[in-house]
Amino acid sequence: MIKGKKMMVVSAHAADYVWRSGGTIAKYIKEGAEVHVVVLSFGVRGESNDLWNMPEQTAEKVKEIRRDETGRAASVLGVENIEFWDCEDYPITVTPEMEERLVRKIREVCPDIIITHDKFDVLNPDHNRVNDFVFRCSVMANSNGVKLEGTKTTKQMRLFGFEPHQTELSNYVPGIFVDITDTYEQKVAAMKCFKAQSHLIEYYTQRAFMRGNHARRISGVKDYKYAESFAGFFPVVSGELI
């Protein structure tokens, strides 16, 4: 049951949440969930290579383009609750102030689900740092002993990791497939907002098709055409085998 759920997505860079979970985000919004997205950086230094090939380029110009791209992509997905923290990337350096800010944000949203980067991306240390950052802050948000004025302790939420770009090289193993057939076109439209990384559009289009094939084969549901996969931080707990 998606309606009424609260989801929080923490993205290292401006486009990560779209490539890796755009279909799922749009699906949750479409079906009545409350979705909050936190974009830690615009990826000016390390995620905008095509833009830096332009003559007389500057960091401020790149940032403006990336801000516009991710804003338009969020609108396509239906995201209304989005924050841009404007951290410097490559590397993203986590500070105590950032930790307190994210703990506060988690306690403010009280998410049922948090999606962020998986534990290991072989070619992107920013993603690995953000995985650790989000996990630690979720633990602190759940801990009564972490006192932050004006906040209340959260209960344990489900945490999921994005599928990294270099899937096999990162030893990524899917834990769950989410059918995004009904929101696939939204995801594609959102991906096309990112001219700075246009080479990734075809890759993630193919990935959605491939994961859809896996979803059909494993579930037996022939209507699953496109899917996204995630790794679970924790085992599933249930009263029965599901």
Shape: globular
Q: Terminal Cα separation, in Å? A: 15 Å
- Summed up, the helix count is 7
Given helix and strand content, the structural type is alpha/beta
Rg, nearest Å: 18 Å
Low-pLDDT segments: none
- The helix/strand order is EHEHHEHEHEEHHE
Polypeptide structure, described:
The protein is an alpha/beta fold and 242 residues long. Helix content is 40%, strand content 17%. The protein has helices spanning 16-30, 49-52, 59-77, 96-109, 125-141, 184-191, 199-219; strands at residues 6-11, 34-41, 81-87, 113-116, 158-162, 176-179, 227-232. Helix 1 runs parallel beside helix 3 (59-77), helix 3 (59-77) runs antiparallel to helix 6 and helix 4 packs across helix 5 (125-141).
Give a quick summary of the entry:
By secondary structure, the chain is α/β, with parallel strands linked by helices. 40% of the residues lie in helices and 17% in strands. It is globular.
Topology record:
Blueprint (H helix, E strand, L loop, with lengths): L5 E6 L4 H15 L3 E8 L7 H4 L6 H19 L3 E7 L8 H14 L3 E4 L8 H17 L16 E5 L13 E4 L4 H8 L7 H21 L7 E6 L10
Parallel strand pairs: 1-2, 1-4, 2-3, 4-5
Antiparallel strand pairs: 5-7, 6-7
Helix pairs in contact: 1-3, 1-6, 3-6, 4-5
Could you list some keywords that capture this structure?
alpha/beta; about 240 residues; 7-stranded mixed sheet; single chain; 7 helices; globular; 7 strands; about 40% helix; about 15% strand
